[in-house]
Structure formats: structure tokens, C-alpha cells
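Structure in, sequence out. Go:
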């Protein structure tokens, strides 16, 4: 199963796995959602768009609800419950390996691997170590299209980057020191087209809003403003 953020990196991880059918059989995608906002956590992709993504991928979708704000203990409890649900799936739907779209952050990889120790599940990282500048270009050449749905307040990006298409113009405008795939959390995306989909999702960026968010995921550290762009479906 693939950890599906709804963004470009998880989409590309899935695409890489599907290029190796003799080695991998992708059984589904899973993601955390925040019912308080009715959106994918972090990415802020609306659930209606998330479900369309799963339909176009042709894969079962497993939504893992988490509270807002979400202390790490609550997140880990929700993930343990999800593992229990996977164990109870029929053999043809179950999985023993989880794939993640992480690229180079060692602490994140170690955290994911540590949480699976002793569970009977393994973690793999299909895009790990791929040079992000080159991978960004590969994504664009493939026809991948994504909307920038969130801009981190701790990055060098401002409000003007939210709601843009992830395209060459966007990459050219990124401030120096910004990872072209936003691997350091500078920005997040929602994929609406690409080689992993059976057909595109007709969509555009909607309203851009600023919301106070905690510096830390557990609600501590004070509030700062993050910018989010909605995703509007166009007759889909």
C-alpha cells in the first residue's frame, strides 16, 4: 500500500512501483484526513478530490481520521488502528509493505521505519535519493499536473505561491535555497493529472486563504500564518 498525501511525491512513488509489476502489486492507498476541515492533513486537499484521485488510480482508498490539532500520540494511535484494519483485510486486498514518497529526510525515514518495527509490516521508499531538481523535470515531462495547495509560513515562499500550478514557471520563481519538490516542507501539492491516472481530474485552484497554524504539529510553539489554496472541480 502506498502512503498517499495526494501530492506529487506520493504520486510518483506509486508510479515507480507500477513500473515494476513483477516485484510489486499495489493494493491500495492510505492517507490521514482531518474531519475538522474535511481535508487531507497537511496538503489540505478536499476529500471529494481525494476520492476522485483514488477512482482515477483504480485503487481502494483508506482514510485515517486524525484530530486537529493532532498530538503525536494521537497520530500514532490512529496509525496503529489502521495497521490492525489492514491485518483484517481479505488476503487479496491486504499488504505487508507500505511505500512512502520521502526523498532525502533521514529523520522522517527513520521515524517511519521505527514505527513499523515488530508490526509485521515493512517500509519501502521508491523515490528515495532521487535528485529533486532532476525529478521535478521528469515529473513535468511525464505530463504530471499539480496545484500548489499549501505554503509553509516557515519557508521563503509567500502568499503568491499558493494556488499556482506546479510547472516550470513555478520552479523558476522559487527563492534560492528552496527545494524544487518542497521536500523540506516549503510547499505541498494536489495532483490532478499524470501517468498514474486513468484520466485527468478537471480542476483549478480556488480561493487562497491564510490560516493560523501551530509551529508544531501538537499545537505548541505559538501560531503563525500558513497559506492554503482550495481545489475546485470543473464539472468532474
Amino acid at each position: 500500500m502506498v502512503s498517499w498525501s495526494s501530492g506529487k511525491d506520493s504520486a510518483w512513488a506509486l508510479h515507480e512501483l507500477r513500473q515494476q509489476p513483477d516485484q510489486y502489486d499495489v493494493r491500495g492507498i492510505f492517507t490521514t484526513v482531518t474531519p475538522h476541515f474535511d481535508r487531507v492533513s497537511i496538503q489540505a486537499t478536499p476529500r471529494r478530490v481525494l476520492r476522485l484521485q483514488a477512482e482515477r488510480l483504480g485503487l481502494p482508498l483508506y482514510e485515517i481520521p486524525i484530530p486537529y490539532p493532532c498530538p503525536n500520540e494521537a497520530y500514532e494511535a490512529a496509525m496503529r488502528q489502521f495497521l490492525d484494519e489492514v491485518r483484517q483485510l481479505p488476503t487479496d486486498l491486504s499488504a505487508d509493505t507500505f511505500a512512502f514518497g520521502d526523498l532525502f529526510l533521514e529523520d522522517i525515514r527513520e521515524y517511519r521505519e521505527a514505527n513499523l518495527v515488530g508490526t509485521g509490516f515493512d517500509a519501502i521508499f521508491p523515490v528515495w535519493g532521487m535528485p529533486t531538481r532532476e525529478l521535478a523535470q521528469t515529473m513535468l515531462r511525464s505530463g504530471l499536473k499539480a496545484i500548489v495547495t499549501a505554503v509553509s509560513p516557515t519557508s521563503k515562499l509567500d502568499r503568491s505561491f499558493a494556488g499556482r500550478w506546479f510547472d516550470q514557471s513555478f520552479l523558476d520563481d522559487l527563492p534560492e535555497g528552496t527545494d524544487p519538490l518542497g521536500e523540506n516542507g516549503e510547499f505541498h501539492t494536489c495532483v490532478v493529472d499524470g501517468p498514474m491516472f486513468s484520466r485527468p481530474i478537471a480542476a483549478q485552484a480556488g480561493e487562497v486563504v491564510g490560516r493560523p497554524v501551530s509551529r508544531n504539529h501538537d499545537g505548541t510553539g505559538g501560531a503563525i500564518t500558513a497559506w492554503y489554496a482550495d481545489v475546485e472541480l470543473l464539472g468532474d
